[in-house]
């Protein structure tokens, strides 16, 4: 990839050879054509002196050592170069034989300039410059405390012609040589305090005087071209830094540099701009309470005001508190960031740079100088778009998507999702139908979900991840939808289409841990930052991943804002939080001596508990109608209880106990199931202790576990009958429903992310029948409130009989709030039960609402011809009863006729 190909040039010739090709008409292939560097003819500078040639050789050696980059990789300009007015008068100080270069720090090293004559442009109003243009003190500047402040530097004397024609001595601050070297090498933490334009006290000069400095290694001449057209020639003061003065006050300008081959580069100066992040944002981040962090951090295209007019470009902001310096490198500067060093803004460690002319689609990374003195490259933690893996660079993104789901969002906010039907189709985008992008999926997936009747889809993690085999559960880009399937706006399109079809969208979210990949979050600024510094808390040994430091306020802010980002920017209707148990317990999957207790001496992760409470409370407050779901596999109490009573605040919890017990029961041969009836009925004991979702997820059909149909006993017909009975029982059981893709039609093989589903199996009538049954089951479920309205309340359930283990029968009633029942009668035996009496709450006609053994579903057709009549004959504790034919491996739903 481009960023992997950058290299240091071996000699001066190699450096200069990098200049010329990049100035050709093919320059647009490096970056966006609109921002490609200008190639303008220029008069060849006089032949340099031997001293200058020696200095160039030294600079070439510095390039090889990584001190600075060749000029060929300066950022591209965004506007045509302006011609100077005819009356403008300039003088030149160049590194040429005609003007030998003085030693850094001498009076000659400070450039002199004959400024524009009086009457050309009256811009004295610009003396009231923005606050950032005021001379910076050691306290306000981003200069390390152990370096001398510029204002205290020894003065250098130059002469300038004033607008009145007088010739006073102009005193300028001298930049110490060590600071110039830091600027050139990119190791200065406050380059804006040196580069750019700064006011100068000039006794006797009534016009506002500014000094302009720019870093241009290997240039022969450097000129500041003001927006007025005036040209200010800069002189070289050492280490590739150039300086000149102007009495035209603060101006918008570009830096124009000429090179020995006659080419000229003219670009807007990033170092003349104020910070793009404000004091309020800095304060909120410092407090760890910035709920819209993604709007501030990362890379953002924007218009940023200069002095006289705004400029379009891209702002970069990153948190790296342990860094000594940070640079931006990307395809816009040849993956060498020496000309794009960032400034440290505050004590929290935020670094910032605005690069004018940079557009969306630009690939970039941050280059961080660690405390140990090593440069490391990192992807942007807040990037909203990335290169396609295995490439690892971030990409400047922007969105102009116009949503069409207003009606959906309004309806969502008006209803409590916990008291609404929820049957979830879980899928892995890459293997559902391989080769489809977000937009292609928008057509095929919407049609399929509409056909099968699910109320929601749940996407396995969509955030960017380097390794496809992790299924998305080892995230490298928390704010970037994976680019494997297209642009982030393409994902917006997919979700929008689902919403317009009245299908909810859930997404797996992984705040528990992250991978150790060098380019991502691990040791982000050379030290543990996002992860806990103690490996007994900071590493998850089972998965080979790192654990977030939930007690660090900025890390918590990163994660809380990330949850809100998906809800806000992509209209996600809920997040399923992965691996909650690993967050709650400090000794999770650890042996004695591998963990440290909390401050109270216990094994509970108090910081993680607080984080989960915060993210849930904040999400529910800001986005009414969403649902937060916990994948929590232990008996931790209060997972779905409100935070006001010290619960974790989730809306739903995966019922892993139900899943394990019921699947274990179903794997028994019907001949022996009578000995295991308790495994099927145990879940009803605790069914209302939490708000549950019943999952048959991807975890149950991988790693040698086989597919759902593969778990069932018997021949092929019996296996499918068992699947039909099991899913029907699941849909009748209290709790929301989830089924992983492929199981709805009896996928015979175990799932793998490397291949698609066995869609061909739908050509077989029995498998097509199973899909038809699931589709009908979803519609029966959705249309009957008794099956979902009181999922979380004991009043929504009552037993008919759960103890008939001899016949492998389980029967119960579900109730809606209006008191209307549905009877669910399940026969998990292998024989038809004829004249089987079942108690019912009242006599009268009951419709056979659903029969899993119907012929159209691939069943035997045993049943009750669609209707039965209950008698006032008390049975099983009910005032009425009816004799039924219950099919083998079958489930019936009965509903009283109105």
UniProtKB/TrEMBL annotation:
Protein name per its UniProtKB record: 1,4-alpha-glucan branching enzyme GlgB
Alphabetical list of PANTHER family matching this protein: 1,4-ALPHA-GLUCAN-BRANCHING ENZYME
Subunit structure: Monomer.
GO MF: 1,4-alpha-glucan branching enzyme activity; cation binding; hydrolase activity, hydrolyzing O-glycosyl compounds
Pathway(s): Glycan biosynthesis; glycogen biosynthesis
Reaction(s) the record says it catalyses: Transfers a segment of a (1->4)-alpha-D-glucan chain to a primary hydroxy group in a similar glucan chain
InterPro entries: A-amylase/branching_C, GH, GH13_cat_dom, GlgB, GlgB_N, GlgB_N_E_set_prok, Glyco_hydro_13_N, Glyco_hydro_b
The organism's place on the tree of life at top rank: Bacteria
Pfam families: Alpha-amylase, Alpha-amylase_C, CBM_48, GlgB_N
Family: Belongs to the glycosyl hydrolase 13 family. GlgB subfamily.
Entry annotation: catalytic residues: 578 (nucleophile), 631 (proton donor)
One Gene Ontology cellular component: cytosol
Enzyme Commission no: 2.4.1.18
Protein's organism: Naasia lichenicola
Annotated function: Catalyzes the formation of the alpha-1,6-glucosidic linkages in glycogen by scission of a 1,4-alpha-linked oligosaccharide from growing alpha-1,4-glucan chains and the subsequent attachment of the oligosaccharide to the alpha-1,6 position.
Record field: compositional bias (Low complexity): 59-76, 86-104
Residues covered by the Glycosyl hydrolase family 13 catalytic domain: 426-777
Biological processes, Gene Ontology terms: glycogen biosynthetic process
């Amino acid at each position: 990839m481009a960023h992997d190909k950058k290299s240091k040039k071996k000699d001066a010739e190699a450096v200069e050879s990098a200049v010329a090709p990049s100035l050709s008409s093919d320059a647009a292939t490096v970056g966006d054509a609109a921002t490609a560097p200008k190639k303008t003819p220029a008069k060849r500078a006089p032949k340099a002196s031997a001293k200058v040639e020696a200095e160039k050789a030294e600079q070439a050696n510095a390039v090889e050592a990584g001190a600075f980059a060749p000029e060929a990789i300066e950022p591209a300009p965004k506007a045509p170069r302006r011609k100077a007015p005819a009356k403008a008068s300039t003088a030149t100080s160049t590194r040429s034989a005609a003007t030998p270069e003085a030693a850094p720090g001498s009076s000659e090293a400070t450039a002199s300039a004959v400024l524009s004559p009086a009457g050309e442009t009256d811009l004295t109003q610009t003396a009231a410059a923005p606050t950032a243009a005021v001379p910076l003190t050691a306290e306000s500047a981003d200069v390390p405390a152990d370096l001398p402040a510029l204002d205290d530097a020894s003065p250098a004397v130059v002469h300038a012609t004033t607008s009145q024609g007088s010739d006073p001595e102009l005193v300028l601050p001298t930049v110490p040589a060590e600071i110039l070297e830091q600027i050139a090498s990119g190791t200065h933490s406050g380059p804006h305090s040196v580069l750019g334009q700064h006011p100068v006290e000039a006794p006797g000069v009534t016009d506002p005087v500014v000094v302009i400095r720019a870093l241009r290694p290997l240039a022969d001449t450097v000129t500041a071209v003001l927006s007025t057209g005036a040209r200010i020639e800069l002189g070289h003061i050492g280490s590739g830094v150039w300086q000149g003065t102007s009495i035209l006050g603060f101006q918008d300008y570009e830096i124009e540099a000429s090179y020995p081959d006659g080419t000229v580069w003219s670009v807007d100066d990033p170092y003349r701009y104020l910070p793009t992040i404000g004091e309020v944002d800095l304060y909120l981040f410092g407090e760890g309470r910035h709920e819209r962090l993604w709007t501030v951090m990362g890379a953002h295209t924007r218009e940023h005001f200069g002095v006289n007019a705004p400029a379009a470009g891209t702002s970069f902001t990153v948190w790296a508190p342990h860094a000594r310096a940070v640079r931006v490198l990307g395809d816009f500067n040849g993956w060498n960031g020496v000309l794009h060093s960032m400034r440290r803004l505050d004590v929290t460690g935020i670094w910032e740079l605005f690069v004018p002319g940079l557009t969306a689609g630009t690939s970039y990374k941050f280059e961080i100088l660690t405390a140990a003195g090593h440069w490391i490259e990192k992807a942007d933690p807040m990037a909203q778009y990335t290169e396609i893996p295995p490439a690892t660079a971030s990409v400047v993104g922007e969105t102009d998507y116009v949503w069409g789901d207003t009606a959906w969002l309004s309806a969502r906010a008006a209803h409590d999702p916990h008291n609404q039907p929820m049957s979830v189709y879980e899928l892995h985008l890459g293997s559902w139908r391989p080769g489809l992008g977000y937009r292609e999926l928008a057509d095929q997936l919407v049609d399929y979900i509409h056909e099968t009747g699910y109320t929601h889809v749940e996407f396995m993690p969509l955030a960017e991840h380097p390794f496809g085999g992790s299924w998305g559960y080892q995230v490298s880009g928390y704010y970037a939808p994976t680019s494997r399937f297209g642009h982030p706006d393409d994902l917006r399109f997919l979700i929008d289409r689902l919403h317009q079809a009245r299908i909810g969208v859930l997404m797996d979210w992984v705040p528990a841990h992250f991978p150790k990949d060098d380019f991502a979050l691990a040791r982000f600024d050379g030290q543990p930052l996002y992860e806990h510094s103690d490996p007994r808390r900071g590493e998850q040994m089972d998965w080979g991943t790192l654990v977030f430091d939930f007690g660090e306020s900025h890390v918590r802010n990163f994660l809380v804002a990330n949850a809100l980002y998906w809800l806000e920017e992509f209209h996600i209707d809920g997040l399923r939080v992965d691996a909650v148990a690993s967050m709650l317990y400090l000794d999770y999957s650890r042996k004695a001596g591998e963990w440290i207790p909390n401050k109270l001496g216990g094994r509970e992760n108090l910081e993680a508990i607080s984080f989960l409470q915060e993210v849930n409370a904040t999400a529910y407050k800001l986005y009414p109608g969403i649902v937060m779901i916990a994948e929590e596999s232990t008996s931790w109490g209060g997972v779905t209880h409100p935070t006001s009573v010290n619960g974790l605040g989730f809306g739903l919890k995966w019922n892993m106990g139900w899943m394990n017990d019921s699947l274990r029961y179903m794997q028994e041969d019907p001949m022996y199931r009578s000995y295991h009836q308790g495994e099927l009925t145990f879940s009803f004991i605790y069914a209302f202790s939490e708000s549950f979702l019943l999952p048959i997820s991807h975890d149950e059909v991988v790693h040698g576990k086989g597919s759902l149909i593969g778990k069932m006993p018997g021949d092929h017909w019996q296996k499918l009958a068992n699947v039909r009975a099991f899913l029907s029982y699941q849909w009748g059981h209290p709790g929301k429903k989830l089924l992983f893709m492929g199981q709805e039609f009896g996928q015979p093989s175990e799932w793998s992310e490397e291949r698609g589903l066995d869609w061909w199996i739908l050509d077989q009538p029995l498998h097509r029948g199973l899909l038809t049954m699931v589709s009908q089951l979803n519609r029966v479920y959705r249309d009957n409130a008794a099956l979902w309205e009181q999922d979380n309340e004991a009043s929504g359930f009552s037993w008919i009989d759960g103890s008939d283990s001899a016949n492998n029968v389980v029967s119960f009633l579900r109730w809606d709030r209006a008191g209307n029942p549905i009877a669910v009668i399940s026969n998990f035996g292998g024989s038809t039960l004829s004249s089987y009496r079942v108690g019912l709450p009242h006599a009268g006609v009951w419709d056979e609402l659903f029969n899993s053994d119907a012929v159209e579903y691939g069943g035997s057709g045993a049943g009750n011809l669609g209707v039965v009549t209950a008698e006032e004959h008390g049975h099983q504790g009910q005032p009425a009863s009816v004799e039924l034919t219950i099919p083998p491996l079958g489930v019936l739903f009965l509903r009283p006729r109105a």
